Inverse folding.
């Protein structure tokens, strides 16, 4: 099914808003990736063992999950423009804390706050992105998520150079955070103003509608698959296919690059097909890729399969978040927060579930669960049809 898309040039304010939200998505990925290379240094400085570090890192995920319902309410109350600016500033302020704190409890608190700020920004910037896309003559949402991936690559690369160059972690992270903080007001002033005060006081704990529950289930499967492959693909290539460390890394790089390429081409694909058709195709491509990865006898075939899987996975979350933001009867922030909560749960649960299954039946059979998840997403892709297309119809597509 070909999607009905408006044509023409965007109004100047809308184009400027796209530039502003593109900056925010890039910066979000950039900041998160900037401190990751410093984790070993933090572990050594605080004399943490593996268990203590794992618990500390789990605090960041806990902060995100705890903040998500509040993030939806805040975005509805303030409007996505102000909520995006406030959350991005908070992320800049909290970013240096993990590399500065002197104790494990302080590290856990710092990561809890960092996770909460990131989750709030995730909801607010996605709501703003949908608002801009609804006023744009063509889809732009997938490319915004592509910019997040590009920002992560840039942040991790520059952080790696800083570490190899002997730059102290506090100096590096504080420098990045301070630089972005200074340009943030000017870079985000063109974001679109939406209606604030739409969230009810009791909407923080409101029960999601049936439509949002369905979208949340699909998002859970999508991020469960992404988290599991991110953690287990290299292990599979090394232990099952006999790859060396370099070849295993190539397999994971192929998956990551395919994810980024898929998102940057996702807006083009969205112009060709409806959201439901694209989501169904994404699920089938992912399932095909996983089938090839698990059954191809050679290393090259397995790497190709994981790459194809990443290409199929790339646009699932942008499609599902866009549909959640346009769900009837809720604010965009609440819709995204409800679906993102399930998605985060899947992302956290995926790797240990695969590990448990692999312990029982072997890693190759354990990864079949990811194949089933991709097929389930394809089977229930029509759940996004109404909400994803509603904005285009209302805009006169």
């Amino acid at each position: 099914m070909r999607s009905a898309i408006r044509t023409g040039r965007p109004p100047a304010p809308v184009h400027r808003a796209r530039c502003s939200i593109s900056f925010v998505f890039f910066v979000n990925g950039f900041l998160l990736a900037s401190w990751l290379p410093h984790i070993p240094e933090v572990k050594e400085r605080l004399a943490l063992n593996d268990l203590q570090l794992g618990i500390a890192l789990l605090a960041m995920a806990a902060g995100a999950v705890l903040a998500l319902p509040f993030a939806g309410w805040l975005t509805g109350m303030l409007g996505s423009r102000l909520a995006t600016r406030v959350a991005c500033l908070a992320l800049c302020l909290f970013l240096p804390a993990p590399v500065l704190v002197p104790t494990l409890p302080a590290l856990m608190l710092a990561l809890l706050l960092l996770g909460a700020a990131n989750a709030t920004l995730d909801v607010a910037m996605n709501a703003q992105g949908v608002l801009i896309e609804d006023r744009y003559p063509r889809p732009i949402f997938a490319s915004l998520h592509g910019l997040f991936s590009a920002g992560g690559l840039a942040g991790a690369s520059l952080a790696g150079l800083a570490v190899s160059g002997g730059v102290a972690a506090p100096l590096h992270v504080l420098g990045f955070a301070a630089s972005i903080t200074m340009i943030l007001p000017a870079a985000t002033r063109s974001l679109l103003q939406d209606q604030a005060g739409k969230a009810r006081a009791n909407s923080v704990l409101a029960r999601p509608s049936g439509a949002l529950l369905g979208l949340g289930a699909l998002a859970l499967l999508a991020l469960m698959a992404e988290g599991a492959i991110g953690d287990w693909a290299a292990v599979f290539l090394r232990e099952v296919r006999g790859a060396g460390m370099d070849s295993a890394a190539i397999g994971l790089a192929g998956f990551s690059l395919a994810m980024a390429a898929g998102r940057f081409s996702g807006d083009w694909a969205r112009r060709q097909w409806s959201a439901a058709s694209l989501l169904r195709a994404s699920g089938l491509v992912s399932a095909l890729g996983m089938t090839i990865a698990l059954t191809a006898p050679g290393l090259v075939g397995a790497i190709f399969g994981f790459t194809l899987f990443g290409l199929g996975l790339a646009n699932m979350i942008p499609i599902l978040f866009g549909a959640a933001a346009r769900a009837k009867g809720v604010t965009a922030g609440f819709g995204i927060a409800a679906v993102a909560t399930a998605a985060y749960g899947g992302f956290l649960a995926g790797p240990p579930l695969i590990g448990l299954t692999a312990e029982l039946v072997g890693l190759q059979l354990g990864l079949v669960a990811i194949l089933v998840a991709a097929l389930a997403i394809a089977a229930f892709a029509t759940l996004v049809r109404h909400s994803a297309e509603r904005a285009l119809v209302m805009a006169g597509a």
